[in-house]
Amino acid sequence: xxxxxxxxAIFFVFSTLNLKAQNIYAQISAxxxxxxxxxxINNPDFxxxxxxxxxxxxxxxxxxxxxxxxxxxxxxxxxxxxxxTKKYLIHCHSGxxxxxxxxxxxELKFKEVYDLRGGISAWKSHSxxxxxxxxxxxxxxxxxxxxxxxxxxxxxxxxxxITITNFGNDTLRFNSFTDLTSTDFRTNFNxxxxxxxxxxxxxQIFFKPNAYxxxxxxxxxxxxxxxxxxxxxxYSAPSGVNLFSEDKLIVYPNPTTGRLFIKxxxxxxxxxxxxxxxxxxxxxNLGEFTGSELDLNxxxxxxxxxxxxxxxxxxxxKVVKR
Length: 322
Known about the structure:
Layout: H1 2-21, E1 24-28, H2 30-39, E2 46-50, H3 54-57, E3 66-67, H4 75-81, E4 87-91, H5 96-107, E5 112-116, H6 119-125, E6 138-140, E7 146-151, E8 158-166, E9 172-177, E10 185-187, E11 194-195, E12 200-207, E13 214-223, E14 226-235, E15 249-252, E16 259-264, E17 272-277, E18 282-286, E19 293-295, E20 302-309, E21 314-321
Parallel strand pairs: 1-5, 2-3, 2-4, 4-5, 7-14
Antiparallel strand pairs: 6-8, 8-12, 9-11, 9-13, 10-12, 13-14, 15-16, 16-19, 17-18, 17-20, 20-21
Helix pairs in contact: 2-6
């Protein structure tokens, strides 16, 4: 009996995992579509796909919706080039064209597709908003704003991939980015890259230290669709040095209401403490830390990153302020 129960439990777990791995296709109401749009307003993996003609689309469309004319002779071929792992809400005027596009996207194995029943007509009948505006929107797909290369051996290059996207429905062009010349970092970012509302762009940041030290740099990208920033950090320390680690640093209480105690059991002094928010913005830079208590009462409630640095090592600790 126990063996049979165990078999059923294992079968249920694997069945559940299989269900989670399946692609999702659904036809949804205007109310559900509106809720979906609101819930995904900051989701770089969400695309509203309007399959009407340009004459229908240009004067009135959902905000940030991108247009792919169903009647184009190469519609199916173009559809097949889109990123299939993203989440799509598709619609036309009343549901006929989007229904056929929906079927084609299922055949092409898109991961997650929702068809708005009744099209934009149903959307408008509920008085949900439309617009005639077009704009590019620069957004991160890579969610981490602090890119930590950790300990990298001298003259050895490490790499982190960064993916960004155009979340809007107008062409996105880049104006400038941070010059990493004369630093231990470099990038293959292409300022001439152009992104439509369907496009992601992946580039690399490289870190190659040429001395035992800690290196930090803010990396900005400016575009006609806004700016984004990443905090780059890395260090190099010789083998055999006692680095900051969780067994050498005790930080408590965490979560904290304001007072944070740091007990350093290693043999490296803490030369500097930097407080970041989750977007990578530096909140406070502290000099040499010789005490045991850190006052975080000035912070709003939320999650922060403490970076503790010595001349040869760094450690980043996530702290919750309540």
